[in-house]
Fold these 4 entries.
Entry 1:
Amino acid sequence: MRTINVGLIGAGFMGKAHSLAYAAMPMFFWPAPAVPHRKIICDVTEEAAAEGAQRYGFDESTADWKRVVEHPDVEVVDIATPNHMHAEIARAAAAAGKHIICEKPLARTAEEARTMYEAVRDAGVVHMVAFNYRRTPAVALAKRYIDEGAIGELISFRGTYLQDWSADPESPLSWRFQREIAGSGAVGDIGTHVIDLARYLVGEISGVNAMLKTWVPERPLSAGGADQLGTGRSAGDAPRGPVDVDDEMITMLRFSNGAIGSLEATRNGHGRNNFLTFELHGTEGSIVFNYERRDELQVCFASDGADRKGFRTVYTGAPHPYGEALWPIPALGIGYGETKIIECHDLFQAIVGQEAVSPDFGDGYQIARISDAILESSATESWVSVPPLETTPGRG
Ligand code: SOE
C-alpha cells in the first residue's frame, strides 16, 4: 500500500487534530487509500517543533516552514497556522508541486484567497480547505436526504454557530482578535463553517445583509499571542490592546436557487459551547441538526399522516455516510476527531485518485468573498451581492 509523507506547519490545536487524523485514518478506513506518514512538523521555535515531533509522531522538526515546503520527501503540506500565514505558505507549496490541506478560513480576505486559488489551479495539485463539519455523518446524511428529494424543494436555511470562549472580557487578546492576523472575528473563525454548510446543503449564496458588533473593544495583551481560547484569564490591571474584529455577526442570506436564510455567529454567548446548528425547511419536510448532539438528525416529513407528523430522531451509524468505517453501533459517539479522520481519508483518496475534493480552494475563495460581503454589508448597512465563482474544482 502506498505511503504518503505529510509536512505539518503548526503544532497547536489544529496540529493536534490533524496529527490524530493521520495516525488514526487507516485504523478506521481499511484498506486506506494510502497510509499517511508523519514526516516533518514545523512550529514557531525549534523547541516547540521538537516537542511537537515527539508528541505527534513526526520524524523531523523545524522552525522554518520553508523546509517543510521544500522537503523532497513531502507530498502533502498541511497548513495549520494562524490565518495571516496561509497565503504565503500555500503559494510556495503549490509552486513546489505539493498537495495542500489548509485550515479555515482559507485567507484573511477574498483577494488573498484568490491568489491561493490561482496558485493551486495553475500548479495542478490537489487542494482542500478544512471545513470539517460537513463530514459529520449526520450532516452528510442531511445532504443525502436533500439530494434524494426527501424534503422537496428547499425554501429556507437557519444556521448558527454560537460559542462562549471569548465572553469573558479578561480573556487575552490572542491573534483571533487582531484583524492583521485573523482577517475578521466571528465571521471568519466560525461563521465560515456555517457558510460552508449552507453552500453544501442549499447551494450558492448570492447576497447578504449583515450586522456586526464588537462587544469587548480591548483585551489584556497575551504573552506571545498564544491562542488560549478563553482559558487564560489575565489580572484586571494587565496592559490592554484593541480588538479590531467583530465579536458577533447576524446576517440574512439569499441563495441563487431562490431559497432564503439567516446565519448567526458569536463567541460571546454564555452557555453555548459548540452550538453549530442548522434548520432546513423544504416543501416536503424539515431537517434539524445541532453539533452538540452530533449523532442525531431530526427529520420531519410532510407525507407522514396528520396524526403522527412531527420530528423523529435518526442516530447515525453503520448505514449512514462513513458509517461502515466508524463504530458498529449507532450512538456510540462521533467526535471532533472523527470528522478530522474522515477529512483526512477524503483528502488522501483524492490524492491517490488524482481527483477533485470538496471543499477546495475555489470553495474557500468563494466563502472569503461571502465573508468580505458580510463585512461590507454591515459597514454600508445594505444588501451586498456576491457574484458566482467561475470554478475549476479540486485538482487544477
Ligand atoms: C475557535 O472558535 C475554534 O477553534 C474555531 O477556530 C474552529 O474552527 C472550531 O471548529 C472550534 O472553535
Entry 2:
Amino acid sequence: MKAINVGLIGIGTVGGGTFTVLQRNAEEITRRAGRPIRITVVADKNLELAQKITGGQVTGGQVSNGKCRITDDAFSVVNDPEVDIVVELIGGYGVAKELVLKAIANGKHVVTANKALLATHGNEIFKAAQDRGVMVAFEAAVAGGIPIIKALREGLTANRIEWIAGIINGTTNFILSEMRDKGLSFDTVLKEAQRLGYAEADPTFDIEGVDAAHKITILSALAFGIPMQFDKAYIEGISKLDAIDIKYAEQLGYRIKLLGITKRTPEGVELRVHPTLIPSKRLIANVEGAMNAVLVQGDAVGATLYYGKGAGAEPTASAVIADLVDVTRMHTADPEHRVPHLAFQPNAMADLKILTMDEVQTSYYLRLRVADKPGVLADITRILADEQISIDAVIQKEPGEGETQTDLIMLTHQTREKRINAAIAKIEALGVVAGKVTKLRLEELGK
Ligand code: HSE
C-alpha cells in the first residue's frame, strides 16, 4: 500500500528519536498503521546534524540520502505537495505557530510536541484545523511517552472527569527527590541537575512551573471540554521551597511534589500548579527522579494512574509515532468520524469559568517561627477560628539550645485560599510571630 509521507521539522533530541524508532520498528509500525510511514523530508537549521542522523549526503547545498530530502528551510516542508503529515518539533510560539498554521492551511495534518504553543494558541490552531478538516495530534506534548492524551480523549470517554493531579515536569521532580533524599537546598540540587543534564542552562520554565502549567492547561481542556486558558492558570514553582519544609512534611507523613491540578467544582474549574503536600502512602507520592505520573479521577472508573518517562528521545518519540499511526489510520476518514481534537465535539464545548486562586479550596501546611511562651498558640488558633479554618494537626518543635523561638507547624482542613491568606496576614501581625508564615497547599488525593 502507498506510504504516507511525513515532513519532520526539527531533528534534535525528539526528532532524532522519532527518526530512529520509525526506522527500527518500521515493520511493526506498518503492520499497525496499515501502510508504511515514511519520512520524506527533514528540516533543521543544523544540516550537519540532520545529515548525521538520517545518513544523508549533501548535494548542491541540500542533503539527500535517496529517500529523504534534508533542508534548512522549514517552510519548504509545510509547502511540500508530497507531504501528508507535518511533525513540528522545534518548540516555542514564534515560527512554530506560523509553520503549524501554514501546514494546516495547506491541508496537511500536524503532529506536535509543543505544549507551549497549544496551551497559548491551541484554540486558534484547533479551529483552523477543524475548518480545514485536518488533524492536529499532540500526545507528546504532555508527559512525554505516557499516553495520557489518548486516555483522556478515548479511554475515559464514558466518565465525567472530576479532577486530575499530575507530576508533569521531570526536572522539578528530580530536584525535589534529591532535596528530600539528601537534605540539600534547592540551589545546590539545581546546580547538580544542570551538571547532569537534567535541567536546562536556563531552567526558568521548568522550576517556576510554567512548563507544568502548559501541560495541565491542555489536560484541563481535554478533561472538561473547555478552551485552553493558560492565562488563567495559577503558577507557583519550587525555587522558593525550603528543604526544612520537605523534612517537616515527611515527619507528618507527607511528600512535597510539584503538581499540576485541575478540578471541577460547583463554582468553576480550578487550574493550578504549585508545590503540594501529598500523603506519602499514595502511589503518586512515590514517583521519584525525573519520572512523570498523572492521576485522573473519573466518576465511573474511580482513580486511574499513568506513570512513565516524561521526556527523552525515544520515550517522546513513542508518543510522536503513536500520533503518526493514528493520523495515518484516520487520514481517509470523514473528519466527522474522527476523535475530536479536545475530546468533546467542537460545538459542545462547555463555558465553565476558571476560578481565581482566592476561590480555590484546599488544605494547608503552615510553618511559623514563634516565641515559645504561654498564649501564643491560643492567639493563633483564635485567628484561624475567626476565619472558620479548622485545624487538622499541630506540631511544635523543641527550641534549639539557648533559643527563645521555635517552629510551629500546622495542617488545616479544607478552606478557601482567601480565608487562609486573611488569617496569615493577621498571624504575621502578632508580635510573637517572627517574619513571614510559610504556606504550602496540601491535597489528600483520595476521593
Ligand atoms: N522539561 C520537561 C520536564 C520535559 O522537565 O519534564 C519536556 O516537557
Entry 3:
Amino acid sequence: MRTQVAIIGAGPCGLVLGAMLAKAGIDALVIERKSAAYVLGRIRAGVLEQGSVSILEQLGVQARLNAEGLPHGGFAINFAHRSLRIDLESLTDGKKVTVYGQTEVTHDLMDARAAAGLSTLYEAEDVALHDFATATPSITCTHNGQPLRIDCDFIAGCDGFHGISRASVPKTALQEFERVYPFGWLGVLADVPPCDPELIYASHERGFALCSMRSMTRSRYYIQCAIDEDLSSWSDTRFFDELRRRLDPEAAARVVTGPAIEKSVAPLRSYVAEPLRFGSLFLAGDAAHIVPPTGAKGLNLAMGDAFYLAEALREHYGERSSAGIDHYSARALERIWKAERFSWWMTSLLHKFDQHTAFETRMQAAEFSFLEQSRAARMALAENYVGLPL
Ligand code: RFL
Ligand code: PHB
C-alpha cells in the first residue's frame, strides 16, 4: 500500500491529525493496534479547552459536542476546609472549558472518518517503522493475518506513551525529561448525578480528590492512592466513603453513590521527549509527552500537537515549503513545556506527598492562601486551565 502520511495510533491525536489532513486533501492511513471497541472502552479525559472545541468545530464534528457537552465557567479548589472558586469566565475575558468525554470525542472522530470513507486499519499487529531517517520510510504490520507494507512520505507517531514510534528512535537521538510521582489516582465512573454542577479539586490531609462528571447523570470521581494500589481491595462503598472524607462536608453530603461502571488506577507522571522529529518521523500526543492529569491537559495537548503537525504538512504539500515541518518540534515543545509546568504546579499544590517536610506543607498552604488573596494569581491559573493559545 502507499499513502502520503502513515499515522500510527487511533487515539484522539491520530484521529484529529487524520481528519485535518483529509480536509487539506492529504492522503493518510491510520494504523491502530487495538480494535475500535477497545479504544472506545478506555475511560480517560473529560475536559476540553476552547481551542480543542474549536479544532473539532473546524473539522465539522461538533454536533454531539454542542448538544451534549457541558460548558463550565468555573471550578472549585478545596484546601484545608476552605473553598475557592476559580471563575474562569471573569478571569479570562469569557473563556470556558467544556466537559465532554474523550470517549465521545474519539467516537465522533471515528464516525466522521467512516462516513468520509477514510480507512483505518484496526487490530494491526507487529507494527514496525522502517527507514524514517530517509525520505522513503515505510511501515510493516500484520493485518487480518496478512503481512502488509505501507510506503509513505511521512510517519506520524501518535501511538501513546507505550507505543512503538518513540521506542523505534535510537536512544542517543532522544533527550528525555521525566518525573514520576509517588502516587496514583484511583478513578470511578458511576451513573449517578454529580455532587456539584462544577468540578471540585480537593486537597486534604488524607490525599487529593477530584469530583468530575461526564453528564448530569454520570459522575467521574478520583482519589489519590498508592502507586501500586490493589484495586480489588476497593469496594464501591470503601471508595465513596474515602471520597466523602476528603471533601468539604456540604459537597460530601451531596455525593450520590452507585455501582462503579469502571474503576482503575492511573499512575502520575511528567515526561517530555525532545525533539519531536527524526527525519520523516514526527512524534505527537502522549507518544511524545505525558502530564499528570491534575491540570486536564493531556488530551488537549495531543489535539494541539495534531493541529500543529497538520498545518506543517499542509505547508509542505500545498506550498512546497519545509518551514512548517522544520519548525514543528520547536513550536509544539514551546507550548508543551508550559502545559508541563502548569500540570506539575497543580499536582504539587494539591497532593499529599509522604516525603514532604513541614516546610513544603507550609509552602502549599501559602500558595493556596496567595490564590485566595490575589486575583493576578487566580488569573494565571485560569489562563492556563482554559488553555494557552495555539
Ligand atoms: P492515546 O489516547 O494513548 O492513543 C494512542 C493510540 O495508539 C495505539 N497504539 C498503537 N497502534 C499501533 N501500533 C502500536 N504499536 C501501538 N501502540 C499503541 C493505542 O492503542 C491507542 O489507541 O494517545 P493520544 O491520542 O496522544 O491521546 C492522549 C490522551 O489519551 C491523554 O493525554 C489523556 O487521556 C490524558 N488525560 C486527560 N487529558 C485531558 O486533556 N483532560 C483530562 O481531563 C484528562 N484526564 C487523562 C485524564 C488520562 C488519564 N489516564 C488514564 C492516563 C484522566 C486519566 C485518568
Ligand atoms: C475527568 O473528568 O476525567 C478529569 C477532569 C479533570 C481533570 C482530570 C480528569 O483534571
Entry 4:
Amino acid sequence: MRFEFYIATRVFFGRNCVKDNKAEFAKYGRRAFIVTGGRSGRLSGALDDAIGVLDELKIEHCVYDKIENNPSLECVKEGGVAARRFKADYVVGIGGGSPLDAAKAIAVLAVNCIEPVDLFKNVFENKPLPVICIPTTAGTGSEVTPYSVLTRKDMGTKKSFGNEDTFPKASFLDAGYTESMPHGVAVNTAIDALSHAVEGYLSRKSMPVSDVLAEESIRLFGECSENLLKNSFDSDARDKLLYMSMLGGMVITHTRTSIVHAMGYTLTYFKDIPHGKANGIFMKEYLKFNYEHAREKTDNILRLLKVSGIEEFGVLMDRLLHIGAHDDLRLGKEELKLFASITADNPGILNNITHAGGQDILRIMEASLKQAIM
Ligand code: NAP
Ligand code: FE
C-alpha cells in the first residue's frame, strides 16, 4: 500500500457552527471580503450569521454579491479588483460552488497582479489570501477542495485551477443553510456530489482512503434518494447530504474528476444545463462503459445505492433528473461531435479507470443524449 493524503481545511460541521466557533474568524485578519451570489447568501441565512459574527468581533467587512453561476474569468477579475481596493486580509465565500470557487480565485487575484487566465498556471508569486467557506448547497464539496472551476469562454468549456495554497483555511458546514434550496437545486447538487464519489472511486488515482470516503458518500446518497425524490427532508437527511457532499470533495481532492465532469462541462457551457444535472445525464452510460474494467467496484456502487443493476440506476437518475427539469435540450449531430471533441481535449479524462478515447466519448455522449439529438 502506498499513498499520499492531505486536506488542509479545518472543518466545522453542525448546526450553528458559525456562531459557535466565531474565534476562527478572528484568526485571519481585521478586514473580511465576503463573496456570495445574488440570493443564496441571504436566503440561506448564512450571510446574516457571518456578518453577525464579524460585527461582534469588530472585523471590517464588505459584501461582494455579484457572483454569477459558473463564474467566468471576467467575474473573478472584477472581484479581485474589489478585494484589493478593500484591502482585504481574508475572503469569506458563502453560497454554492459558484461563489466558493470565485472566492478562491479572488483570494489569488487580490494579491497577485496577473490576468485570470494565468490562474491556471497554478504558480503564484504571492500566497493567496486565506479563504473561509460556508456552503449553502450540498453538492460541490468545494469547501474542502483546493479547486476553483471557472468558465473559459476562450475554450468553450470549464477548467479548474488550484494548489496547496488554495485550500480553504476553514469551512463551516451547517445543513440549516441548505434548507432554502429549491427542490431542483437540491437534487442537481446531490447528483454532483454522487458523481464526485463515483468518478473518484473509478479513477486511476483512487486510493484506499479515498475509496472509503467514496463508498460512504455513495451509501449516504442511497439513503437519501427517497428524500430527494419526494422533496421531503428532515434535519437528519439534510445533515447526511451535506456530509456526503463534503466526503465527495475530499475524494476528488485526491482523485480529481474524470469523463463525466469533462462531458458535463460542455452541456453547462453551451446549453446552460446546471452542473450536477449535466453530470447526471452521463452517469448511466459512463458506468456501462467502465463496467468491464471495474466490475467489482461498479457492483459495489450499485449495492451501496440499493439498486439492482445499471438499468435500475438509470431509472433512478431519470426520475431525479426530471425534477431539475430544464428547457428542452436539443442538439444537432455536429454540435454533439464538437462537444465530444472538446471533452476529448480535457486532460481530466485521463483519470478514468480505463482509457477513454475520442470515439468512446462520442459514443457515451450519443447514448446518453439520444432523445435530445435532432
Ligand atoms: P451554484 O451555481 O453555486 O448555485 C446554483 C443556484 O442555486 C444559484 O442560483 C444559487 O443562488 C442557488 N442557491 C445556492 N444555495 C442556495 C440556497 N441555500 N438557497 C437558495 N438558493 C440557493 O451551484 P452549485 O451546484 O453549488 O455549484 C456549481 C459550481 O461549482 C459549478 O461552477 C461547478 O463547476 C463548481 N464545482 C466546483 C467543485 C470544486 O471542487 N471546487 C466541484 C464541483 C463543482 P445565487 O445565484 O444567489 O448564488
Ligand atoms: Fe462537480
